[in-house]
Amino acid sequence: MRVLVVDPDPARAALVVEGLAGVHPLEVRQSPVFDEQEAALFEPDVVVVAADSPDRDTLENLQDASVANPRPVVMFVDRSEPGLAEAAVRAGVAAYIVDGLAPGRVRDILEVAMSRFRLMHQLRQDLEKAKADLASRKTVERAKALLMKERGLEEEQAYKLLRKLSMDTGRPLGAVAADLLAFAGVLKGDGA
Amino acid sequence: MSGGELTLGFVPLNDAAPLVVAKERGYFAAEGLEVRLSREVSWATVRDKVAAGALDGAHMLAPITLACTLGVGGDPQPMIAPMALNRSGAAFTLSRRLTMRMTPGESRRVALARLIAERRLQGEPQLVFAVVFPYSTHNYLLRYWLAEAGIDPDRDVRITVAPPSRMASKLAAGELDGFCAGEPWSAVAEDGSIGDVVMRASDVWRDGPEKVLGVTAAWARREPEALQALLRALLKAAAWADEPANHGELAELLARPDYVGASAGSIRRSLPAANFHRNAANAPLPVQAAWLLSQMMRWGQAPRELDLRGVAEHVYRMDLYNEAAAEIGWPPAPAAEFAEGFADGTVFQLDLARAYAASFPISRLGRG
Known about the structure:
The complex is a heterodimer.
Chain A: E1 2-6, H1 10-19, E2 27-31, H2 36-42, E3 46-50, H3 56-63, E4 73-76, H4 84-90, E5 95-97, H5 103-151, H6 155-169, H7 173-187
Parallel strand pairs in A: 1-2, 1-3, 3-4, 4-5
Helix pairs in contact in A: 1-5, 5-6, 5-7, 6-7
Chain B: E1 6-10, H1 17-24, H2 27-30, E2 35-39, H3 43-52, E3 57-61, H4 62-70, E4 79-84, E5 90-95, H5 96-99, H6 108-121, E6 128-131, H7 137-148, E7 158-161, H8 167-172, E8 178-182, H9 185-191, E9 195-200, H10 201-204, E10 211-216, H11 217-222, H12 224-242, H13 247-255, H14 264-270, H15 286-298, H16 308-315, H17 318-327, E11 338-339, E12 348-349, H18 353-357
Parallel strand pairs in B: 1-2, 1-3, 6-7, 6-8
Antiparallel strand pairs in B: 3-10, 4-10, 5-8, 5-9, 11-12
């Protein structure tokens, strides 16, 4: 497990190391501030940060599914911040350590955070793929309709023509259909 | 009113001024309010604490109230913006390493596009620019400004996030090539000869949206009297902060380490960048919220099936503002259907917000 602890106080990283005793292989790195380049090189499985760290906003962006290498972020709150743990869970933060860092709970919490993050990430990817599939199906339907209208083809023939174009060029059906629609737009003077 | 002490959060920036002034010059006290100000280091913490009730309300980036309500970047948490704390005030600062390579008199944006193209040809790494939060006017203004010069903010450069108070040091260390943040942090970078301001929010949109008072919809329903008292105090404080004659005193106040913690000189110099009051600047105009939503849609943050007017009017509460304004003898702000003041001559129309969002050549919305 590779853990990045973002905290000016080395004691927190020491607690994490203590809590993860017995995990092999284990690499815990402590950094006083979050450095994106350093993190990209280290490729942590999970990032641990205090809820009141100024690096929170940067890490918030790191969790975003749209960035290249999203990572789960685990935050801990000191007892002096009542109510914040609950809020962070609602706000979609991967997990929260409520009562500061207790070595006995570190391992469970990090593992739960990582598996929940993987699950969420998978769900998001499935959703994106489903959306893309739907968009591609719509494009194919529109390209088919265009061929039927412009070339006087039956639906079956139009579909076969698209399939042939796709196989001849070795490109997905949706991409071929999109090109066809774009070119039709240019020929009609849409300017694309 | 519950009668207890209220806690409001703020992030160290010039535009926290209405909160600081209301506290230090007695506007809260005059309304019978006991307010504690809590200095926060990140917008994520501000949002979480307001959502959880650890803060009653906060100095907030306007788009956070919209993102929270929509559940963008987390589960939905309805928030409202019953007043704007200021308009404008953000600036985009480029490192001096870059501006030194620009020709005097050349448009900074054209020069930047040229430098980016040169770097690509030479196989150099992409320039890295920081904004203060994914859901911030800063992010949308910077993207708008770059895209107008044909620079794709997702493909031609890298946009990252950093806390405002660390921007100047990151720029100096070479971790960043530029940043878009609220003042005084651009003034601090300039005063340290680290960077140069190449764009101010007002160069894109004069009197565009900036910070608001953000509270949860639930808190506003539960504490209607406290909210009105808060609004009256903050409106008067904002008017005081806007007066140039008060800027010397205001800069000294903000410079304190428990508030902004930067030099009074840099703060004093950058205070005029924000409009705290003129031209009904405190009215939370839904048309401004709709513009922010259009940009969230453009960059793929908000779903494209969104009812922009519905969300904008739900979050930007003109009724609550007008109620407080009437109490202190200010004229009501008329509901605006159009937003003007764009440098490119755009007139943004609330009814056409969706078509507008889809109209940009550089955007993450596919055609059709």
